[in-house]
Structure formats: C-alpha cells, structure tokens
Design goal:
The protein has 93 residues and is mainly α. The longest helix is centred in the middle third of the chain and has 37 residues.
C-alpha cells in the first residue's frame, strides 16, 4: 500500500486544481497576458506543486519509512536513503 493511500482523494483534488492553473497559464499566453502576470501565476503553480510534494513526502515518511524501520533489516536503511534523495530533489527544485 502506498503512503498516501489515506489522502489519495485530497492529492488528486489538489492535482486537478493545479492542472486547471496550468490550463489558465496556457490561456494567459494565448491571450498575450503581461509577462509579470504570467510569471506570478507560474510561481503560484510551483508553490502548489511543492505543497503536494511535501505532503507526499510526509505520507511516505510516516508510512513507508516508519514501517521499514519498525521491521528492521537492510530495507530500513534503503528506505531512509530513498527518502533523503527525495528531500534533496525537493530542495534543489
């Protein structure tokens, strides 16, 4: 079971809102909207995606990583390493 299973509906709703924001960005470009206004909306979409990423990471840590640590063995260290790589990707973005 994936870590976000309990919040799957919320994650999908948030992604649908982001999808709508991206479609709005496309319309803004089609309509030759002022550059700064488009950039402001790009920033909003970026923040929304980051919020989804942080929520998914939290679910992963609370479910997948904590379960692996409780079970022990080599899988535990692998899950921690995997989570650290995900954090590094988020920090770079």
């Amino acid at each position: 079971m994936v870590g976000y299973a309990a919040s799957k509906d919320d994650v999908q709703a948030r992604l649908r809102r982001i999808e709508g924001q991206v479609r709005g960005l496309q319309r803004m470009v089609d309509d030759d909207t002022y550059c700064i206004d488009v950039l402001t909306q790009v920033s909003a979409v970026t923040r929304a995606l980051q919020a989804v990423s942080v929520a998914l990471l939290g679910d992963h840590l609370h479910h997948c990583v904590s379960d692996a640590i409780a079970a022990g063995g080599p899988d535990a260290a692998g899950k921690v390493d995997e989570a650290m790589k995900a954090v590094q990707r988020l920090v770079r973005s």
